[in-house]
Design a protein that fits this description.
The protein has about 400 residues and is of the alpha/beta class. The chain contains 12 helices and 12 strands. It starts with 6 loop residues before the first strand and ends in a 19-residue tail after the last helix. Belongs to the bacterial luciferase oxidoreductase family.
């Protein structure tokens, strides 16, 4: 079977349970990005949070600047910069500087902001966030294009003869991605402006699984109306993934952390009615698997889950593993290593040459063995020595050319 070509990375919100040293949590996140770079994963996205106690990174750009010094190849993205929280000039100027500091490895991920406490502290009403996102996005894109001075005025920001001194590091500019959950808004912005959609493929606790095929249609429809096209290869899906030695071991690795995430963060902090879902205490991780919130199991099971997601969505370019801090540091690193060793190669084409070579040798092994034995015996004969008799048996299932 021909497998889809998929890239892999990580989307690190990050969300960390209470009780740990927050300084060390930052270090652990930085160390994880370094580890992902060593493993050869393509991307790491870092989020922005200012309230709630679980999200410990308030400036993705500052974090990514540090991560760039500890990595060599991995692309680094803001996942995401909440546009209503910032003046668009600062968003554009910071990301271009970071683009130069990383020699073109940076990506700008943007969104409306998802934490109600963050918006409240900044005096932003939730009903205004999507409008503000659209207004800011247009200004940021115009500034990044660098085609002339930007003049814009809204009820919350003004740009007067604004232009960036830096231009993006590469001629093609900086890739801009926009996050999407369930509403059409972000996918429509992606299609209208030619951005890379970044969709959350998992439901929130108690929610329904997003209709990913319909989500993509929103982008296609908006792109067509704007005279553009969109490419599924630019579409990123975010989902919780954990690769264990076995499904049973994986579930046990995650049991305590998933319960804390579901009940402690979404239930106690966010206020979602988790208890009303009827989840048996201690079986939270099974609930998350059954509702499609996570792909968990052995390498074979995870690979099958990724293929199923690919088919159900209609196809995408990159899968981003959500960093939810469900497992210990050691087990999280081990899961990503299994992902890189046993799952990623099934989807990036790196095994095709080895599989073809193995099939070719297997198909011709009878002839190869016969030639090798004949050459061995000839060496004895040429030396005037009686060659030992070597049995040549046809391996089971051997073929011939």
């Amino acid at each position: 079977m021909t497998r889809p070509q998929i890239g892999f990375g990580a989307f690190i919100s990050p969300l960390h349970p209470h009780g740990e040293n927050p300084t060390l949590q930052l270090w652990r996140d930085l160390d994880l990005v370094r580890w992902l770079d060593e493993l050869g994963l393509a991307e790491a996205w870092i989020g922005e949070h200012h309230s709630g106690g679980w999200g410990t990174i308030s400036s993705p750009e500052v974090f990514l600047a540090a991560a760039a010094e500890h990595t060599r190849h991995i692309r680094l993205g803001t996942g995401v910069t909440s546009l209503p929280y910032h003046h668009p000039f600062h968003v554009a100027s910071r990301i271009v500087q970071l683009d130069h500091q990383t020699r073109g490895r940076v990506m700008l991920g943007v969104g409306a902001g998802s934490a109600p406490g963050d918006a409240h502290m900044l005096g932003i009403h939730p009903s205004e966030q999507r409008r503000m996102t659209g207004e800011s996005l247009e200004a940021v894109l115009e500034l990044l294009a660098g085609e002339g001075p930007v003049n814009r005025a809204t009820d919350w920001f003004t740009l007067r003869d604004a232009r960036l001194q830096h231009r993006p590091y590469r001629p093609g500019g900086i890739e801009v991605a926009i996050s999407s959950a369930a509403s059409p808004h972000s996918m429509q912005l992606a299609g209208r402006h030619g951005l890379s959609p970044l969709s959350f493929a998992s439901p929130r606790p108690g929610g329904t699984v997003p209709d990913l095929r319909r989500q993509w249609q929103y982008a296609e429809e908006a792109a067509a109306a704007a005279g553009r096209t969109v490419d599924r290869a630019d579409w990123r899906l975010v989902v919780n993934v954990y690769v264990g030695e076995s499904r049973e071991q994986a579930l046990e690795d995650l049991r305590e952390g998933a319960a804390a995430w579901l009940r402690g963060y979404f239930g106690d902090i966010v206020g979602l009615p988790v208890d009303a879902l009827g989840i048996e205490p201690g079986r939270e991780i099974e609930y998350l698997v059954e509702t499609g919130t996570a792909i968990i199991g052995s390498p074979d099971e995870v690979a099958a889950g990724v293929e199923e997601l690919y088919e159900s969505s209609g196809g995408f370019g990159t899968l981003l593993v959500a960093g939810a801090d469900w497992a210990s540091r050691e087990n999280t690193r081990a899961s990503f290593e299994r992902l890189a060793r046993f799952v990623v190669p099934r989807f990036n084409g790196s095994l095709e040459g080895f599989e073809a070579s193995a099939a070719w040798v297997r198909e011709n092994r009878s002839e190869f063995v016969t030639q090798a034995v004949g050459a061995f015996q000839k060496a004895f004969t040429d030396a005037g020595v009686t060659a030992p008799s070597l049995p040549v048996t046809e391996p089971a299932g051997a073929g011939s050319r």
